[in-house]
User: What shape does this take?
Amino acid sequence: MIEIIRTDSQNLEFKKLVQLLNSDLAKRDGKIHPLSQFNNISSIKYVILVMKKDKAIGCGAISKYDNNSMEIKRMYVSPEARGQRIGEKILLELENWSRELGNTKCLLFMGSKQPEASKLYQRNNYDLIEKYGKLKAIPDSICLAKDL
Assistant: This one.
């Protein structure tokens, strides 16, 4: 059985999962990739952890983007827990939390070498949007959004 916990970026289990995520992204994209500059987690207020038998197996976070939108960040499911729709549970909880905070949209960016993530977001009605902010200059970034 899994448990979903709301926490923040100071949580040690979240920090451990983010290290695993960063390692995974470095293998996919190379150690020095332009998207990695946006991976700071020092002050994220809204973090989801998925626990199974007292072990963190997945995470995700949201942060304020504008008056009506939250940006989804640091989505990760450990390899041994993949294929169990843990990512969908994290995404749904992040969307619910975004609504509770009064937001009407979630948006995110990802690299082009993450087919599993792309499938997850497409399955959950995220649409391709124009690249935003600093991402416009990064060729293999993909930006997605969903109205809540």
Notes: The mean pLDDT is 91. The two ends are 28 Å apart (CA to CA).
